[in-house]
Amino acid sequence: ATACLLLNAQFCISGRWSRPACDLELLVFAGNMATWEQQQASAAGTLLGVYSTPVTKDDVRRIIELGESLQERKDIYTYCADLYSWRYYGLTIPCILLTMTVSIMSAVWPDCEHEVVRKALISGSSALATMIVAALSLFKFQSKMDVFSRSANQIEGLISRCRFASKFDVDGHIKRDGAQQLITEVKRQMLEIRAHTPQVSMDMEAKGRTRHLQLLRQQDSASATCADAAEEGRSQVAKASGSTVPVSNDTGATIVPTDPAYNSMARAA
Q1: pTM for the full predicted model
Q2: Among 61, 145, 149, 155, which one is most buried in terms of CB atoms within 10 A?
Q3: How confident is the model at residue 5 (pLDDT cuts 50, 70, 90)?
Q4: Hey, how many other C-beta atoms are within 10 angstroms of the C-beta on 193?
Q5: End-to-end alpha-carbon separation of the chain, Å?
Q6: pLDDT reading at 145 higher than 90
Q7: CB-CB neighbours of 55 under 10 Å
Q8: DSSP notation for 118-163
Q9: From CA 162, how far away is CA 178, in angstroms rounded?
C-alpha cells in the first residue's frame, strides 16, 4: 500500500498522469485505508472484550464440581484396579507354587514307592495349574488391572488441572474463556478415557462409591484433627508467653492479647 501511494505521488509530480486522476486515486486509497483501520480496530476491540472478561463464580463452581466428579470416578477406577489386582495375584501365585510342586515331586519322589499316589498328585497339580492359567487368559485380570490403573492416573492429572485452575480463577489470574476452554477440554479427555476403559458393573461401581465416601470422611476427619492440633498449639504458645487466648466477651467483641511475645510465637506456630 505504501509503494502504491509513493508511485501515485511520483506520477503526479512527473506529470505523466493528470492531476485530477492522481487526486482521485489518492482519495480512493485514503478511503480504503480508513475502512481497513476501522475494521482492525473493531476486531481488536471484540477480541479484547472476549479475552479480558473476568471469570464468574458460576465458572469456578463448575470447575470445582467437575473436579469432585472426577475424584469420584478416579476412586471407582482405583477400586476396580485393586480388585482385579487381588484376583490376578490370587491366581498367579498359586499357579507358580503348583508348578514348582510338580517339578519338585517329579524330581525327588522315590521310584517304585506309592506310584499311584505320585501320579495322582502330579496329575492333579498339573491339571489345577492348567485351569488357573486358562482362567487368567479367559478373564484377562492383568489387562483390566493395567487399564483401570492407567485410567485412574490420567484422571488424577485432570483433577490436578481443575484444582490448579480453580485456585487461580479465584485469584483472578485466568479469564472466563480459559475456564470454559478448560471445562470443555477436561470433558473431552474424560470421554476418551471412558471409551478406552472396560465397563464397570453396578456392584463394583456401588462399592467404589462407598470407598469414595469413606475417603471423604477420612479427609474431613484428618482436617478436623489438624485444626484441633493447631488450636492446641496456639493455646500452648499463649500459656508459655503468659498471655491468654483470644476470647469473646459478653458484648461479642473479641479480646486479643497485645503481648509482643504472644504475637511472635503465635505467628511462628
Answers
A1: 0.65
A2: 155
A3: low
A4: 19
A5: 69
A6: yes
A7: 23
A8: HHHHHHHHHHHHHHHHHHHHHHTHHHHHHHHHHHHHHHHHHHHHHH
A9: 12
DSSP state of 246: -
Is residue 179 within 8 A of residue 170, CB to CB? The reply is no
By DSSP bridging, strand 247-248 and strand 254-255 are antiparallel
DSSP-derived letter for residue 56 is: P
The pLDDT tens digits for 10-55 are 555 555 555 555 666 667 777 777 777 766 655 544 444 444 577 7
* Residue 168: all three cell numbers together: 487461580
- Rounded to the nearest integer, the mean pLDDT of the chain is 78
In three-state secondary structure terms, 257 is coil
**Length reported for the chain:** 269
The pair phi, psi for residue 54, each rounded to 5°, is -70, 155
Q: What is the pLDDT of residues 95-124, one digit of tens each?
A: 999 999 999 988 888 877 788 888 899 999
**CA atoms within 13 A of residue 202's CA, in its CB half-sphere:** 0
Kindly list the distances between the CA atom of residue 54 and the CA atoms of 14, 51, 179, 266, in Å, as whole numbers in the listed order: 57, 8, 10, 37
Distance CA 165, CA 183 (A): 10
- In this structure, what C-alpha cell is assigned to residue 5? 501511494
DSSP 8-state assignment for residue 54: B
